[in-house]
Write a structure and sequence with these properties.
The chain is of the alpha/beta class. The chain has nine helices and eight strands. Bound molecules: zinc ion (2 copies).
Length: 239
């Protein structure tokens, strides 16, 4: 069971439909610990500007008894791992996911995709590599997972990527690699409406079917995720 969903979009993304209050109310009803607001970075058409991310510290740490972390799903903009928000702003966010989106970056070679993901994993401001099992950006899985293991960067198993099919071979291969190399995992909904938050059953079953222990799933509770982030980002105050 996943109690803290750390990949959730709100209306600020421009193509998602829940407000922060609606998402918190949903979490409260279904007894989830909370969620991270991770709206798309400014390069995504229709998403929030850098000003939104600079003001996000106004978001309360708790709403209706539900924990909220302040984050972003930043866009990988080139094959050197460049993101679409400047470092001084990324540094203030509790959770930074880095993802490829084909609206913004055209797939190239396996080597270039691998290079970008390794650079993102090695960026101390990036916490999670988002939906790397989605396909379209084929990469060398062991190379990227080793970079994650060495840096503590988390690999996301994303509910949408699985599309209800746990036999999705890329996700399976990635999760198996995470087990072998002891890479920290997060299991997320990537919700674009409030009612999708925390709905990750297929992804959770996939991970558990491989015998991955609970301790390796960092967002099993708010407390476990917070403890991980406090170590990664000692300059932030999570209290
Ligand atoms: Zn995404
Ligand atoms: Zn997303």
């Amino acid at each position: 069971m996943i109690q803290f969903d750390c990949h959730v979009h709100s209306v600020a993304s421009g193509h998602a439909f829940g407000t922060m209050e609606e998402i918190a109310a949903y979490c409260r009803t279904f007894h989830l610990d909370g969620f991270a607001l991770t709206d798309h970075g400014p390069a995504m058409p229709g998403s929030a500007s850098w000003i939104y991310f600079s003001a996000i510290r106004m978001v309360p740490r708790e709403l209706q008894g539900v924990k909220i972390l302040r984050g972003i799903e930043a866009n990988l903009m080139d094959y050197k791992g460049q993101l679409d928000l400047e470092d001084s702003l990324l540094k203030k966010l509790d959770v930074v996911i880095a993802s490829f989106h084909d609206l913004l970056i055209q797939p190239k070679t396996r080597q270039e995709h691998t290079q970008a993901l390794v650079a993102a994993a090695q960026n101390p401001l990036v916490d999670i590599l988002g939906h790397t099992g989605r396909g379209g950006y084929d990469y060398d899985i062991p190379t990227v997972l080793k970079a994650c293991r060495d840096t503590g960067t988390m690999i996301e198993v994303n509910r949408w990527t699985l599309k209800g099919d746990p036999s999705n071979s890329i996700c399976y291969e990635i999760a198996r690699g995470c087990k072998e190399l002891n890479v920290p995992i997060v299991i997320n909904s990537d919700a674009h409406t409030a009612d999708q938050v925390g709905r990750v059953d297929e992804a959770y079953e996939l991970v558990r079917s491989l015998g991955i222990p609970d301790e390796q799933i960092i967002n099993r509770t708010y407390a476990s995720f917070q403890a991980h982030q406090e170590k990664r980002k000692p300059w932030l105050d999570f209290s």
